[in-house]
Write a structure and sequence with these properties.
CATH topology of the largest domain in chain B: Arc Repressor Mutant, subunit A
Shape of chain B: elongated
Oligomer: heterodimer
Number of domains of chain B: 2
CATH superfamily of the largest domain in chain B: Winged helix-like DNA-binding domain superfamily/Winged helix DNA-binding domain
Number of strands of chain B: 0
Structural class of chain B: mainly alpha
Largest sheet of chain A: none
Order of helices and strands of chain A: HHHHH
Distance between the termini of chain B: 81 Å
Number of helices of chain A: 5
Helix content of chain B: 55-70%
Strand content of chain B: under 5%
CATH architecture of the largest domain in chain B: Orthogonal Bundle
Largest interface: A-B, 47 and 54 residues
Largest sheet of chain B: none
Order of helices and strands of chain B: HHHHHHHHHH
Number of helices of chain B: 10
Helix content of chain A: over 70%
Structural class of chain A: mainly alpha
Number of strands of chain A: 0
Chain lengths: 95, 211
C-alpha cells in the first residue's frame, strides 16, 4: 500500500535531462533558473541526490590527489637532455 | 567602401612572459629555469595520463624537446602554460598512437544513469558523507589513479586538465582544440566513469570503517 504522506514520485524522464547537467551545476556554470530547477529536482529525487553527492565527492577526491615529486635522477637527466639540445642547436647555427 | 580595420591578436602577459622573452632573446640559462618551473607539474600530468613514472618521464622529456624546438614561434597569443600543456597533451596522444591502434571506446551518458529507480536505495553512501581526509588514504589514491588511467584517453585528458590540473573549461578547450561544450560533455562522462569505479570499490573492496 502506498503511503499517502509520501511526496509524489518525481518525473524520472526529467532525471536524464538534469543528470546530464550535474557537472555544470557542480562547476557553477549554469544560470540561476537552471540551478533552481536542478535543486528542486534533487530535493525531490533521492537517487539523483545520492548521485549528485557521490559525483561531488569524486571531484573533490580528484582535486585532492597527492602529487608525486620528480626524482633527483630524472631532474639530472632532464638537465643533461636540455644541455644536449642547446649544444645541438648551437652547432646547427655555426655549421 | 571604407577599409576594414585589421585587428592584431591580443598579446597575453602572464608570469612566464618575461622568462619566455628572455629565452627567445638568447638567454640559454633561461630554458633551465623554465624546465625547473614546469618539470614537477608536467611529470604529475604525465603520471595521471600514462600511469607509470617511466612513461611520464619520457613524456616530460619529449614535451621539453618540442618546447625547445618551437619556443621561437610562441607569439604570446595564449597563456604560455596553456601552450605548454597543448604540447604535452599532443605528446601523450602521439605516444599512445605509437603503442596501440585499437579505437577508443565512447562513454555514453545512458550507461551512468541511476537506472531502475526501484533498485536504487537513494541514500548517499558513507564514502561521500564522511570527512574527505578520512576517506582519502593511500589505497584510495591508488584506486583513483587506476580509475583515471582506465578512462579512454580523450575523456582522461579532459578530466586530468580540469579536475587535477585545475584548468578552466575555456583553457582546457583551448589546450585540446575543442569547444567548451565538448569539454563539458566529456568531463561529465569522465567523472561519472570514475565515480562508478569508486562506487564499486567501496561496495566490494573497501573494509567497513571501525565503529
Amino acid at each position: 500500500m502506498t503511503d499517502p504522506h509520501r511526496p509524489p514520485e518525481p518525473h524520472h524522464a526529467h532525471c536524464r535531462e538534469l543528470f546530464a547537467r550535474l557537472s555544470e551545476y557542480l562547476d557553477r556554470e549554469l544560470d540561476e533558473i537552471q540551478c533552481r530547477e536542478i535543486e528542486g529536482h534533487l530535493n525531490a529525487c533521492p537517487p539523483c541526490q545520492a548521485c549528485f553527492e557521490t559525483l561531488e565527492r569524486t571531484v573533490a577526491l580528484c582535486r585532492q590527489m597527492p602529487s608525486r615529486p620528480v626524482s633527483g635522477d630524472f631532474a639530472r637527466r632532464l638537465r643533461e637532455a636540455v644541455a644536449r639540445m642547446g649544444a645541438a642547436a648551437g652547432a646547427g647555427r655555426t655549421s | 567602401m571604407p577599409p576594414t580595420p585589421t585587428s592584431k591578436p591580443k598579446r597575453i602577459e602572464d608570469r612566464d612572459s618575461p622568462l619566455i622573452r628572455s629565452i627567445q632573446a638568447g638567454d640559454a640559462d633561461g630554458f633551465y629555469a623554465l624546465v625547473r618551473r614546469y618539470q614537477q607539474p608536467l611529470f604529475n600530468f604525465g603520471l595521471r595520463m600514462c600511469g607509470h613514472a617511466a612513461d611520464a618521464e619520457d613524456m616530460v622529456q619529449d614535451t621539453f624537446l618540442n618546447v625547445f624546438r618551437y619556443l621561437q614561434d610562441f607569439r604570446f597569443e595564449s597563456q604560455f602554460k596553456n601552450w605548454l600543456y597543448r604540447i604535452a597533451a599532443s605528446t601523450c596522444i602521439k605516444r599512445r598512437r605509437r603503442s596501440q591502434y585499437a579505437p577508443e571506446p565512447e562513454l555514453s551518458l545512458d550507461d551512468f544513469l541511476p537506472g531502475d529507480e526501484n533498485a536504487v536505495a537513494g541514500e548517499t553512501p558513507p564514502w561521500a558523507r564522511e570527512p574527505l581526509e578520512r576517506v582519502l588514504d593511500q589505497e584510495l589514491a591508488e584506486k583513483l589513479q587506476e580509475a583515471i588511467v582506465a578512462l579512454p584517453e580523450k575523456y582522461r585528458l579532459v578530466l586530468v586538465l580540469r579536475d587535477l590540473e585545475g584548468f578552466s573549461t575555456e583553457a582546457a578547450a583551448q589546450i585540446l582544440n575543442l569547444t567548451p561544450t565538448n569539454v563539458k560533455v566529456r568531463l561529465h562522462r569522465a567523472r561519472l566513469f570514475v565515480r562508478d569505479q569508486l562506487k564499486d570499490y567501496f561496495r566490494h573492496d573497501r573494509p567497513a570503517p571501525a565503529a
